[in-house]
Amino acid sequence: MKPVELPQGTLEMLILKAVSLGPLHGYGILLRIQQISGERLEILQGSFYTAIYRLERRGWIRGEWGESENNRRARFYSLTAAGTRQLKTETAKWTDMAAVVAGILRKKAGEI
Amino acid sequence: MSLLAPIRKLWHSIAPRTHSDVEEEFRSTLDAYQEDLIRQGLPEEEARRKARIDLGQPATQNETYRDAIGLRVFDELGGDIRSGLRALRRNPGFAAVAVLSLAVGIGATTAMFSLIYAVLLHPFPYADADRIMNAHFVKTQQPDVFQWFTLSEAQLDDLRLAAPVDSVLGFTTNGHLEITNDGLPDDISGVYLTKNAETFLGVRPLFGRMIEPFDAGHPVVVLNYRFWQRYFGGDPHAIGRTLEMDHAPYTIVGVMPRSFAFNDVDGVGDVYLPASLMDAVANGPAPTYLPWIKLRPHVTVATANAALDPILRDIMKIHTEASLAWHLRLQPIIVPYQQDLGRTLALLLAGVVLLLIIGCANCSILLLARGRTRRHELAIRTAIGASRWRIVRQLLVEALVISCTGAVLGVAASYWLARLPLVLSRDSFPAESVIRINAPILAFSVALALLCGILFGLAPALRLSRNDPARSLPGRQAGVVAAPARRRWSVLIAAQVALTLLLMATAGTAIRGFLRLTQMPLGYDPANVMQLGISLHVNNPAEWSSLQSREARAPRISSRSGRRSHPSPVFPQSLSAPMPRRPVLMFRPRSSSTEVAMASSRRLV
Fold first, then answer.
1. I want to staple B193 with a disulfide (CB 3.0 to 4.6 A). Which of A57, B57, B177, B197 is the partner?
2. Is the ipTM beyond the 0.90 threshold?
3. Structural domains in chain A?
4. For residue A99, what pLDDT is reported?
């Protein structure tokens, strides 16, 4: 299957979702997103950490130093209360938008 | 530590993570990814390369971080400032000329502003000084003719009841007192203040206290700062000691701060005494006082004038036909200075502002001239992707670096410059005004520096940023100034010459004004006229006439006259309180030598 390209601004939403399932370090977030998407998302770009920094700055995720599975020091991110709320609104917005767009695209000539 | 803590806290809230923190995290991700790639079968070197291509370099990660949290603008500005400072260091000659020409302008302007601030905006230390009014009667037909008036204690009390009046201070014009402690008798001036002096003036004494209502009848004295410095050498233990004046002991209860120089009407008093002691001094009618009227808040001077005129006529019982030609005029205590100094200061301010504009034009020309040598650098910047705005910003920041350096030097210089007019002409300024560099003045000079930087930096920045890299990159040797640039130069140079001429004209006008002052006719020929002041504290006519007869016998004096007060050129003293005064002898020695005059006066005394 061809890899999917992410629309602008959705990366942050995906990171929030990945972190909501449990604290993760940066690379872990990457892996989890790829894993959930069935290896179809290509997000190994410089924009990944920019998104992480921005989310932390806004107070939606919180980073703490800890120990990774292979005994390496790593920074683990977890969702804050504000982040949980944000994820909820973003999800609702996304579902709404996707439904509307999909609905429009599904329309055939006779249905309008 | 405690001082740095808030700064550190602020810094932490701006950039919560340190450089190494960001880099360490990124490295750990990079390593984990690299290991994964090796596990997938890539050779180590290849895995390392791919990891860095996919994720980026650890060295630039901090930049990504600061960009993400919105600090990039500050980083770029910091870089611009650093490059501006480096450019200044590289061209010390250019830097010195540009910075100095601005430093002179900014220094002079700041000095003028601090002078105006101290003299015209905030000269007095008194509480609510803007509500304190001088009061006098003005001839309606000739507003220049005015008369001070004095009121007795009872009349002051009546005046205090008037609606627009908040409070009234009564004081005497200063009378001469003689210190009769040990040593040489010293002639000093004393000002008697009504018992509400402390609350009316609201100035915190340096030591001890001001005259209080409970001092009534007690021989206490409060010292003026300068007198305290002169007579007691600034000894803080002077409080409680006894000062003997005119053979009567007074207890020193306070020393006023330096800024307190009450009052300007008739010279600053050396000592302040409770008015209740006046009865003992004046062996004539009830003592009277000049009033300072403090109006209630939000009462305009015009309203107060209208309301107080009939009240004062009633109080003073003046209802004669002749008195109708006069009307009351209240005047904020600052007004005499504004009238005397306002024009001069405005002229001086115009002069220094011109100086500053000339300095700015200077810097503009210098920047344009230097810009030619910088074309190459700017062209490279443009070629590798700097926007025009980015280049304008860099050039503006460099200009601001120059103007701020100039401002720092200028403010340092203005610290001394601002004192100059006070040293040159002490009497023209309110004695209370203390020139110091304070927050409003610093704010003024910072604003001035920014304004100057933009003023002289903008034109060269816009000009240089309009740079076609294709044209200027290969030909670094291009030595010919393009025609539009040359026109701009001539405009700048012409403007500079015009401003210099204008400045010289202003200076000429100012100097002519001062010269006219020194040549003002006095009404008598001052050549060889000597003045000799002799203190006679007991109003003893016998002593006065004996002095006159001894003086009449003194040799080598061609003519003489005597008057029983010292000259006060500013205000007529027609109605001031009956106070012991110092007689002044004016005499003209036959020979013009001062030596002779001195000898004569020594014989006389």
1. B197
2. no
3. 10-106 (1.10.10.10)
4. 92
